[in-house]
Structure formats: structure tokens, C-alpha cells
């Protein structure tokens, strides 16, 4: 048992980026490894947590005697320590010093391998300098076709802990950095292998906080949408811009893949398990019991002896020192290649880097529901194990050559610095074996099989004619089919539509037909009659694809398919019925509830029952935060109707603007609009008084936005709430009271606004970097030099860490004295102290509690010494807090608690996140 004072740190799961741990004891024979491993001359004695007694039962049996430091091996030596089933072999294709600390790989249409190198990950046990701009994305080629990637360039350099790399056309990738909100497109325009052009791709995509808790793995799904972990939405590029749709919560951290049917599989991190995989995520979340077979959470790694598990001795299998229960996971892949045994096709692989294993999972579908089984559980083994404790498998990838690639960060510490702080069990183990000295290494491995030579055909899709690419949709390796589809969709070559249509309707291979359908959908060339014919196919898998691909036609306004989709609810196949339920619910087809009830009455399959019941009576989402009230839900519903009946004519059904010819739009795009998500006054003033002229230097064919001040306050609040919350935007709802206030304050406005005039008249948001935050108490989750009150401006949040007491304070200093308009923040949440994850397979997260400030005052000051109380008493709320200061002037702003909360201390720490400060516009 671990002492309660640090049980929290040991039980919070590690996470997303899922990086690495340690190494075997063998001489270092390569100078580059000597340079990477700075071995100390003396062996420090590990320190116990403060006050710990080695004789205490909590520490009984823990060996903390000084040990020889763990030493890294050459790749050839590490290779000897892998354990695989008979017939399989593993070999390196790219290693250090060419790459350092690889976390993921991705191939472009020409088979070039992009490597995400997190060069700042855990260089010390305190994660020092983790956010320095020294990480990179490199690109590698096997030009002599010998199976080794010998030629490479630094494609994008000087990155701050990049979150993903997604090839996005010839010589082009998408990526973003940690603690940022924008995804950028990087392009090599001169062919030298280095990106020289950087363009904004989309915004409002990220979050701040611990690097293991941020979004990762942007991924191109078979449905032509882009997905990522963490984010509960998907995006897609269209001729008029990036569109966005909300999805279910994927509860993932480091890894996304898809199967031959196009269903996405998300990989958890902290749980050590796959996260969401039952149904396509865009249909929302469904709670399915018993998704994991008995014993699934037990890993069977090889003996590593170190007992270096974050959870302490509770997580150690004795006497071999291996991991006793999964605690971290990373990278995933549904193997869809053609150069490994056919029994591996459709099997799910992921890494557990704490256990030093790669696991093979067999998904078993029964009555429409999937249960996951560890293929080697009965043998108390795993697909791939290693006795080298530095083996850290963090990504799995079906490669163009038909084999399976493993990304091995080969690193000393796997847990991020939040869980390796002084006084913890893990920190003692790190210091005992000097694991913090093993940095700057990394290998990419290929797994092949005896008698099955890798495919030596070299992809060259960017130079191939479209008609040739269509033939690749019939390739036995799923990577080739995916890549060809993506290149064709980006190319927008409608000349191949007849070829694709014939393939979709008549090819003998269902996989080929599936990709042909989705390529047509991606080109905007899918026709109603093709979907209708597919819905009548004898193969139920094709009927499912007809339903899924046809969704885009109904969303675009084609009502003729609605009857076909309702009829599918009565299909004789269980899986088709379930898909019809999901599609009907997603599209909100007229009368779909009655159709589902009939389906449930006629088919007693567990999956039909579960999906039907949860659609008709949705369970409350886990960790969804404060729910919308009935009034707020009504607001959005009313606003949706208003938008679709009126606003969509100019602004487009999806909010991306209606095309007006010659590349122009009739009106500005509202989806993903920074203006629509800024201070509510901007949107309210536009609707009340109208807007004309250029906006940010861009003109529109419609010319102007007319005034709608004749509409009631509720009408304006409803439609703007929908726009700010339902069109690829993530901003607060607007109340009728806010509209009334702006209506009164702008009563003298004559005529339509000009953009420049309007922009200057509304409150503007101060950027966090412009302010200095301090607090009487700080217990931020950020570590390694990042602990500060400024965490309140991030998603991660700030907390006092202890019970709210009178006169606790939080202060913001501005660069100069300003007129403060509003202060916004969201009540943060924290894990209940003392909670420990129970044994057995788990997908439920830790229990969170809300910790909003109960009663506080607002004070301002010009010098930080003499304070004026401008609002004597405010009662905080659970969720979003919006405080109007009506232009109060000050260089300092302070929130001060007015009372002590005399209840359970765990319940009432003071926390805030996503803080925003708005100032009145300059005169």
C-alpha cells in the first residue's frame, strides 16, 4: 500500500503520449549511445517520500538499495531480447542518431515516412524544458529499396512538443504544437525536403495543460473526416472552408485507427485499454457492459526486474518485477496488410509501454456487440515482449510494404513529470536506476513473417494518373486503398466518377466497393440511385456502407432516401438493423422512434436492444460537465429552426457560407468564426443593427447584413446561441437579458455598422501572455517550472488545492490600467482525494468534483497596494461564471473569498479554468 499523501499521484493514469521507461544491462558499444547516456560516477541513494519509514508496511518489500544504472543497448543488441510467436521476426528500419524520441509515424502517398520526434519529452525527472522549441518532424525514404530508411530531412523544425503529423498531399503535412489552438499546414514548395510555407488550417482545435492530456493523432477516417483524440468533434475541408461536426467523446489519448468497414478505434492512455470502439464515434456514445474479456487488464510482460511502476508495489508482479495490471497504453492499429499471416487481418494491436509489450486483440462480435480478447492470455503471454526495460512501444502502423511497424521511443522515463515528483515511489525507482539519464534515442521496427517477403513495390501516387489510383482501391493491403482514396479525394478529379461508380456497384471485392463508395462521397459525386442499389445488396456489409455513405446526401437535403433508411430498420440482419438505428438517430429521420421500437420488438439481439434503449433514453454522458438546462436546450432548438429557415440562405447549411460564383461567398462563414466566438456584444450588435462593407479586408457578394432589431430579444438570443454553440463553434450561450442590455446601450446607433466601427465598439479579450497572475495558494497540475496561477487561463486549470478559507485571493496584473468589462471563468474539477482505481477492466474515469468559489468579492487597484471593492459579494456557480465589471478601472484585479467553507475539505478547494478578461474598447 502507498501512503495516502501520494496515492493520488500514483493512481492518476499516465496517459496519451504514452512514452517510455528503461533498459537492460549490457555494455554500450557505440559512441552515439555513450553520448546519449550520461552515466554518473556515483550511485545516488534513492530518497523515500518525506516522513516515510522503510520499516513501515507501506514500504515493506521495496528494494531501494543502490543499483547499477540501466544502460541502453545498440539496436542489434536490443533486437536479441524481443520475444515473438514462432515464425515472426523483427528488424530495425530507422534508429538513432538519425531520429530521437519518436512518438508516431505516418506514410504519405509516395510511401515516405514522417516521424514525430518529441525531443523534449522527459529529459529529466522534473520534465525540465519540456516546452522548449526543439522537437521536429522528419521525413525518411528507402531509396535503394533495401528495407532501411536511409535518406531523410528535417521537414519541420523547432516545434514545441507537436501533437501529431498527418500527411496531407504531396510534400505537405498538418500538425500543431502543445498549448496551442491552431492546426497549421506545412508545405515544401521547392522540393528540398523541408517545409517552407506555413498556412493556418483550422483554429479552436487545441487545449492547454499537461502534455499527456492534450489532443493528439489527427487521423483521416475512411469517411473523409479528420478526427483526433480528446476532441469531441470532427473536421473536414470543403471548397468553402473547414467544417466541423460534434461527435461523441472518444476518451482517447494516444492513438486512432480504423478497420475495413471504416469504423474508428480509439486508444486510451491512462486506462491501459482501448477506449471507444463499439460504434462509429459520430453517432455519439453508447455504454456497453463487459466490453473486455475476463483478465483483459492483466499484462504478461517479460521479467524486467526493475519494479518501476507508477502505482507502486500494488502494480508489481513478483518476483520478476513486471507490471501486474495495465496502467498505460499507446498507439494502435487494426492490421490490414497482406504480408503477415492472414489470421492477423482485422486484429487490433496496441502498445503498453509500462509493461514493455505489444498486445494482439481479437475482437469478437456477438449479437451486434464487440468484446475484446487478448489472443495470448491463456498462454500468459503477449504478441511481442522484451526483456530490455527500455523498450517503449508507442505506435503501431500497417506499412506500405504490408508488414507491421512498431515505433519504439527507447527511453528511460515513461510517465510525465506530474507523476515522477520528489517523494513518490516512482521517483525513487528512477533515481535508483538512473533512468533519467537515458534520453535522445529511438527505433522504428518492422515485424515480418518467415516465407512472406515484404512488398517491394514503391508507391508513387502523387505522380500517378487518377485512373491508375482507382485500381489501387482493389489492393490487398488496406494502406494502399486508404492512400489512393485520400489522394483521389484531394485531387477532385470528377473524370473518374464513371469508373468509380461501376466499381462501387459491380466489383466482386466488398472492400473495393466500400472504398469506391467513399471516394465518390469525398468527391461529392455519390448519387442517390447508387446508394439505393447498395441498400438492396445481398451482402449485409454493403448495405451498412450504403446507409453510412448515404448520410451525406440526406444531410445535403435529399429527402428521397429517407424512406429507404427507415425500411432498413426492418432488415433481417442484426448489424444492418443497428446501423439503421444509428443513422436514423443521427439524421433525426421523421418517425424513426416508432421504427426503432418495431425493430426492438422483432429482434431480441443484445445489440439491437442496447442501441435502441439508449437512443430512446440516452444515459447521461460521463464527465460531461454541467448539463444544459431545459431552457437552454429549448434555446438551441429554437435557434436551429431560425437559422435553417432564414440564415442558412446566405451563410450556408453548415455555416460555411453560400457560394456565389468566382470563388466568392454570398455572406461570411459563421462556422469556426473568431468573431462569432468573441465577446457576445459583437454578434448581438450585428443582428440588431446590421453590418456592411469589407470584413477583415474581404468583401461578399451579398453586400450587407440587414438589421433585425424588430425581432424580440428571445429570438436574437436563440439564433445566436445556436450559432455560437452549434456551428463548429465553442462559445457561451446568449440570454435575452444580454440582448436587451445591448439593445438599450446601442439605441442611438444610426444605420448599419461598418466593420471597423463595430470592432472598436465591443469589449476585446486580453491575451494571457499580456497578464501576470498570482494567488495566495496554488496547486496547479502543471509541473516542471509550469506551476503558477496562470494555469487558470488554460483548460488544465488552477486550484488552491485546499479548502476555501476567508481572504484567499487570486490576482491579475495588466500591462497598463484598463477599463475592465467582464471576467469569465469556468468552475474547474479535480479528482477526489484518496481515490484509487479499483481492480479489474476499467473504462470509467476517476471521480471528479466541482470546486467553484462559493462567495467572493471583486477588488481593483491602480498600484497593487490600495484596493477598492467594486463588487462586494458574488456567489459562484458550477459551470460558467460571467461577471460584469461595467468598465471598472484598474491595473490590478483581485478575487477575494468572503467566507470559509466549513465542510469536507476535499469538496471545496477553489478552482478555475478557461479564464478570460475582457476590456472596454479603446476610445
TrEMBL record:
Q: What protein is this chain from?
A: Mono/diheme cytochrome c family protein
Going by the UniProt record, its keywords in alphabetical order are: Heme, Iron, Metal-binding
Would the keyword Iron turn up in this protein's UniProt record? Answer: yes
Where is the Cytochrome c domain positioned along the sequence?
634-727
Q: At the top level of its lineage, which domain of life is listed? A: Bacteria
What Pfam families does the entry give? Cytochrom_C (PF00034), DUF7133 (PF23500)
